[in-house]
Amino acid sequence: MTKTLTGALFAAMIAGGAENLTENAGIVNDLNVFPIPDGDTGDNMSRTIRGGVERVSAAGAGTLGGTARAEADGMLMAARGNSGVILSQFFEGVARGLEGADTADAALLGRAFAAGVKTAYTAVVTPTEGTILTVMRESTEAAERAGAADLESFFGAFIEEMYASIDRTPEKLAVLKEAGVIDSGGAGLAYIVEGMARVLRGEAPLSGAAASAETPDTAGKPDTAAAAAAFGPDSAMEFGYCTEVMLQLMADRGGMGLEAAEVSAFLSTVGDSVVAFRNGTRVKLHVHTFEPEKVLAWCRRYGEFVSVKVENMSIQHSESTVVNRFVRQTPARTERIPIGVVAVAQGDGLKELFTGFGADRIVDGQQTMNPSAEDFLNAFREVNADSVIVLPNNSNIILAARQAAELCTDSRVYVVESRSLAEGYAALTMLDLDSGDAAAVAEELNEVCRGVVTGEVTWAVRDSVVGGKTISKGDWLGLCGKELISVAPDKVSAACALADGLDLSDREVIVLIEGRDASAEERAAVAAHIRKKYPQKELYEADGGQDVYSFILALE
Description:
This protein is of the alpha/beta class. About 45% of the residues lie in helices and about 20% in strands. It folds into 4 domains: about 5-210, DhaL domain (Serine Threonine Protein Phosphatase 5, Tetratricopeptide repeat, Alpha Horseshoe), CATH 1.25.40; about 240-315, 2-Layer Sandwich (Alpha-Beta Plaits); about 335-450, Phosphotransferase system, mannose-type IIA component (Rossmann fold), CATH 3.40.50; about 455-555, Hypothetical Protein Tm841, Chain: A,domain 3 (2-Layer Sandwich), CATH 3.30.1180. It is built from 21 helices and 16 strands. Strands 13-12-9-16-14-15 form a 6-stranded mixed β-sheet, with helices on both faces. A 4-stranded antiparallel β-sheet has the order 2-3-1-4, with helices on both faces.
């Protein structure tokens, strides 16, 4: 265990955090709904922390205090957006807490993090709970309470509370709850801290399902040209301008006497989402306003611009979508276990459900981008078990799972012949590892899968004729395996006809797994039809969040 944090280690950890956030910037962008969905939180936070990395890279790491100061100064200059500015102020406070220190133990680092939280809160005129501020504060408080004797334990306590705090953000902010997402700034912080912790533990950066394949400067962002073109002479200016300024205070204009509180007070008269702080002779400010010209004119009274950014948030809003692709980044297990379970899933809801049912690792199984043998091998290694049970949950994925099983030398792997998400769902609900016999458990799960009938609702991508039924592009289809059961003009009708077309005579349980594109009204309509038509059956609903299939029916 590591008991001493040096400047070199701190620099490496910040670089690891920056790398992890950069890889996942698109995921964070897609979460951004507060105060409006401007879709760039991930990019802003990534650019902010990379500014600190670049500053230290140019100067070289020295003492811990000196390295922390260089990191903070670099982030200050690079800070963008509300969350980026708050992040820079957190590390500014950390630098103050580590000032003069050659090294630090867990206790000193905890005090420095607490100073970071205090500085971040001070930078915001009206701190809003349920944002990155809350996540910073609650995680730091938990880490300090833990009284860790080493850095790994400190970060372990911090991360455990961090995820719990992130999960609570929708309960603190109605806008998050309505959108069905967690706070984007908190998610960005999670990727940073996870990256830092992995470097501390000597582990390679995480990759795969949790990482965005897009570049950090474009991931998750709207098509700027298309968005700008959509804003015309009759468009409403609904959201104002996101305005950011880095101001160099000038002595001959009385700028040396200007304090952050005075800047914040003025900004509050012309807008909201105000963040402002002073560092030496420079002021950094952020505000959402309908009158950016007033902000610029007021700033010129005290100094000259180092940088200015003014963006039309109405353009950003019109092209934004809110997507929840954030998942907890789980490090490789350090202790060996007798039996581990790996399951393929697609959809945030199903991933969460499968984990709750006992899956140790989830392999992303998008219908149009099936996982490779290498993806499975990585999951097997992370599970760190003597025996591994795998549920591919897609007939197109079984071969890759088998190939990975043959290549795996660290564990004995048993591949369950689960051919759909419905079969995987049913199998995991019956998972029982108490016997300690992985082969027997795998065979039991195979038996469960063989007893499941799967129905799926999706849409037609072209005109065709199947089984005597004429299909037009855009029609909704109800399928049972390769058999076409229903064709309808909408997904609800297709799902109801699918349920009626399946043989329910000897079935006791119906599980309705609802997809990402199914609205609350559509879900309620399908469930109501099944309950009315089949009152003697037990119906369970699950929010799967999967793509491609609007509804999946599992008959048991």
